[in-house]
């Protein structure tokens, strides 16, 4: 009987020790978790709802045409300015030829306007010299009329000729004013008629140049929707280029964990692509100015119906080191696991570190197009100003005829009338 009681007491003691050890273990685990949260976990905000993203640069057609040749394929790397495709733009070529002819015609027309203004000026001056000579003769006739040396009929005839010259001078002055209004204070290059033709030529030349589809940035061809023979329209998406040297991570962190997250916080990231053996070091660049639901296609309307509270997530932009991207390249869309060390409170939420990337935010491949169009317009203007050899010999390039006319006018023995010059006429050669 005594042995049974002792065995039962021993079993109870063993069970009590086990309970005590279990309670102590539970206490230690709880204490460890508490210390882990106090000393470590509460300073970090993590999520596996994070994805790699980057610039997906679209390449659209700027003119209408038919795809004649495609030079690249998907996954191929292209450099900035490299040719991607070529369009058979016959209409653009015809429009360019028409614009070139229109500019040459406009330049010659304006030169003809300057020449007409000069001709009307000299014609008016010649008529005024004739009038001055007749008035001089009329004064002599009137003095000799009393002596009978000149008949009254000659005096009347001279007066009628002066009146006719006055009318002709008035008509010539009106024609000169009209011709001068078209060329006043201008040259051939900046005349409005020529400027309109130049603008049309530049537009036509740009359309002709842009039949060649070029890469605006360097990167990999992600999408291609054009093939030889495809009918292309302006604005149609042809390629998508993905630069892999400038990627970042967007982590959607719960709003309950966002209290201490600030721009500049250090981030530890791992990807499912490489596994936990490759660790990326990043930094929080900035926080989105609204939760993800605020930018959705159908934002929630909690003022109607039953309300169910859902914890929102805030997109956080995390920058990656370029050296790590070069060693272990990533692709847009890959999933990441993020842990943000969020105990630094020195930086404001309204002071993000996000800045302009630089190389992928601008392209200069289109600058040469306008310069080429302007050079083409200047070349056409220069060619339109050249005179044939026969015309130079006949007119002395416009300068000898003016000198001969001036010497002829000076030979008339009368007072020289004052004539206003044509503005801009001497700038044409």
From TrEMBL:
Q: Pfam families annotated for this entry?
A: HH_EMRA (PF25885)
Q: What is its main location?
A: other
Give the span(s) annotated as Disordered: 387-429
Fetch the Gene3D superfamilies from UniProt: 2.40.30.170
Give me any GO biological process, just one.
transmembrane transport
Tell me a GO cellular component: cell envelope
**Transmembrane segments annotated in the record for this chain:** 21-39
Write out the entry's keywords from A to Z: Membrane, Transmembrane, Transmembrane helix
PANTHER family noted in UniProt? MEMBRANE FUSION SUBUNIT OF EMRAB-TOLC MULTIDRUG EFFLUX PUMP, MULTIDRUG EXPORT PROTEIN EMRA-RELATED
Q: What is this protein called?
A: HlyD family secretion protein
């Amino acid at each position: 009987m005594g042995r049974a009681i002792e065995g039962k007491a021993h079993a109870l003691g063993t069970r009590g020790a086990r309970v005590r050890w279990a309670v102590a273990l539970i206490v230690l685990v709880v204490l460890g978790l508490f210390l882990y949260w106090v000393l470590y976990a509460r300073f970090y905000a993590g999520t596996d709802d994070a994805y790699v993203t980057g610039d997906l640069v679209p390449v659209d057609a700027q003119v209408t045409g038919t795809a004649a040749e495609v030079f690249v394929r998907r996954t191929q790397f292209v450099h900035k300015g490299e040719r991607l495709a070529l369009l058979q733009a016959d209409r653009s070529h015809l429009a360019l030829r028409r614009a070139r002819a229109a500019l040459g015609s406009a330049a010659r027309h304006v030169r003809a306007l300057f020449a007409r203004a000069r001709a009307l000026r000299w014609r008016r001056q010649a008529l005024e010299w004739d009038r001055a000579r007749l008035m001089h003769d009329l004064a002599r006739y009137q003095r000799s009329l009393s002596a009978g040396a000149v008949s009254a009929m000659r005096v009347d005839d001279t007066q009628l000729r002066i009146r006719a010259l006055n009318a002709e001078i008035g008509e010539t002055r009106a024609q000169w004013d009209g011709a001068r209004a078209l060329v006043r204070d201008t040259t051939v290059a900046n005349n409005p008629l020529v400027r309109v033709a130049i603008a049309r030529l530049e537009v036509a030349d740009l359309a002709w140049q842009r039949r060649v589809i070029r890469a605006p940035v360097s990167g990999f061809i992600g999408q291609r929707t054009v093939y030889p023979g495809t009918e292309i329209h302006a604005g149609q998406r042809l390629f998508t280029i993905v630069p892999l040297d400038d990627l970042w991570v967007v982590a959607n962190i719960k709003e309950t964990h966002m209290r201490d997250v600030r721009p500049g916080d250090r981030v530890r990231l791992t990807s499912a692509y490489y596994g936990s053996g490759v660790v990326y070091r990043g930094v929080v660049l900035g926080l989105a100015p609204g939760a993800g639901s605020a930018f959705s296609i159908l934002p929630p309307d909690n003022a109607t119906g039953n309300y169910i509270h859902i914890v929102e997530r805030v997109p956080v932009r995390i920058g990656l080191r370029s050296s790590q991207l070069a060693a272990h390249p990533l692709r847009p869309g890959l999933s990441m696991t993020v842990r943000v060390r969020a105990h630094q409170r020195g930086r404001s939420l309204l002071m993000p570190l996000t800045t302009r990337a630089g190389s992928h935010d601008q392209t200069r491949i289109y600058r040469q197009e306008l310069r080429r169009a302007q050079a083409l317009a200047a070349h056409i203007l220069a060619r339109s100003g050249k005179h044939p050899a026969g015309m130079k010999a006949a007119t002395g390039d416009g300068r000898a005829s003016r000198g001969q006319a001036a010497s002829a006018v000076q030979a008339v023995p009368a007072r020289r009338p004052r004539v206003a010059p044509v503005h801009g006429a001497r700038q044409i050669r």
